[in-house]
Hints:
By secondary structure, the chain is an alpha/beta fold. It has a single domain (about 5-124), classed as Response regulator (Rossmann fold, 3-Layer(aba) Sandwich), CATH 3.40.50. The protein contains 5 helices and 5 strands; from the N terminus they run E-H-E-H-E-H-E-H-E-H. The chain has helices spanning about 15-30, 40-45, 65-75, 90-100, 110-124; strands spanning about 10, 30-35, 55, 80-85, 105.
Amino acid sequence: MTRGTRAHIAVVDDEPSVRSSLARLLRSAEYEAATYPSGEEFLDSLAAGSPDCLILDLRMPGLSGFDVLARLALGGRHVPVIVLTSFPSPEIRSRALSEGVKAFLEKPVERSTLIDAIDLAIAS
Length: 124
């Protein structure tokens, strides 16, 4: 799938400004964007179908990003995930990648870095 086919990207982040800026960035790159303020709301949305890619924060109130990853796996959902975090560490990066995350990026992220990561995640 390429950007021209309007891939659906979900963004889960508890910070409204991050959700808003990522949605604008994704739409400018010809993706469809849906944003969720919590892991719970994102997981509830899966009843209507899975996104082509998920951009996921790890540190959130309620369900953490790792909780969301675990629930996706338990539900048999195979959604390519890109972690976007303000709190990177080698241990967290290693854990995320071992749980199948396609890319582990640090906030703030360069537009081209994020778009490239999305393209690679969708293509895999």
